[in-house]
Amino acid sequence: MPTESIASPQLWAVTIAVLLGLLALDFVLTRKPHDVPMREAVSWSVFYLALPAVFGVYVWLAHGSEPGVEFFTGYVVEKSLSVDNLFVFMLLLSAFAVPAKLTQRVLLYGIIGALVLRGIFIAAGAALLSAGTWAFLLFGAVLIVTAIKVMRDAVKHNEHAVDPGNMRATKLLRRLMPVTDEYHGTKLTIRQAGKRALTPMALVVAAVFLTDVVFAVDSVPAVYGVTSDPYLVFATNAFALLGLRALYFVLRNALSKLRHLNHGLAIILAFIGAKLVLHWAHTVWSWVPDVPTPLSLIVIIVTLVAVTATSLIANRREALSQTN
């Protein structure tokens, strides 16, 4: 079953050129390390939220309402999953004691790694979908299993844990090269006593890349549950990831307060997983219902609003109980 796409080679070229331009801009902005003030973070967050909105309107007007709804739905899914990604980044930055002024560059490396990995996974997903509709069943099973794990951890209040000393990536790097005790700006390696040595910056970047692999396994099948167009899958991932650097500084104090976020993500992953399984079944037995994309968007938005509201209510109750 060939995968259909709204994108021409020219549109792919323009999209990748714009993406590279934005990444280059980010490198320029982080060239001189500094702690990001809230005003700067909010301004860039608004910019990176406006970009997908404008792009979504373009898709809607140029290619029709169906691709437009698919893009916006996929973007909401990827953005919600990326918030959990941010939470893990926050733990990594804390575990590796990354200086505040270097946080931007670490996040940028993480975003670039995530984009490369998502591109690889998206291409592999498109190849699987071209091979047959059974790929929908495979993607659905992956998401449902992931949803069960996420919900189980959320119910048991199992927090994300990061131990730099036990991470395979850091262990391997320490065996290959010596590691300095201190950060040396944004440098990944330096010459020390006549030998090339890694800085802690290299270790945290490797750890971030490793977590990117885990998140790519979940996020790519999730957005393929919304659209089978590889271009829209790539675009939703790119737009969701581009604004993470600025969004981190806006949400770093609020992330820990979204105590029910993982409950909501588990529900979203399970819903999309079931949607994929139903879509596969619909291709085999026509009487099986196929979940429309607008309904998916409604379910996802309602779920996110609900877990945000319940998190705020739980936080308020906890604060009141502590004051009494």
Tell me about this structure:
There is one protein chain. This protein has 324 residues and is mainly alpha-helical. Helices cover 74% and strands 2% of the residues. A two-stranded antiparallel ribbon has the order 1-2. A hairpin with a 2-residue loop joins strand 1 (189-192) and strand 2. Helix 3 crosses helix 8 and helix 5 (134-155) crosses helix 7 (200-224). It is globular. It starts with 8 loop residues before the first helix and ends with a helix.
Task: Summarize, please.
By secondary structure, the chain is mainly alpha-helical. Helices cover 74% and strands 2% of the residues.
Mean pLDDT over the full residue set: 82
Helical content (DSSP H or I, runs of 4+)? over 70%
Net shape: globular
What's the helix count? 11
> Termini distance?
63 Å
Largest sheet: 2 strands, antiparallel
Structural class: mainly alpha
N-to-C SSE string, H for helix and E for strand: HHHHHHEEHHHHH
Strand arrangement in the largest pleated sheet: 1-2
Strand fraction equals under 5%
Uncertain parts = none
How many DSSP-defined strands?
2
Q: Please compute the radius of gyration using only Cα atoms.
A: 21 Å
Ordered list of secondary-structure elements with their pairings:
Blueprint: H1 9-29, H2 38-63, H3 65-95, H4 103-131, H5 134-155, H6 168-176, E1 189-192, E2 195-198, H7 200-224, H8 230-242, H9 244-251, H10 261-284, H11 293-323
Antiparallel strand pairs: 1-2
Helix pairs in contact: 1-8, 2-3, 2-8, 2-9, 3-7, 3-8, 3-10, 3-11, 4-7, 4-8, 5-7, 5-10, 7-8, 7-10, 10-11
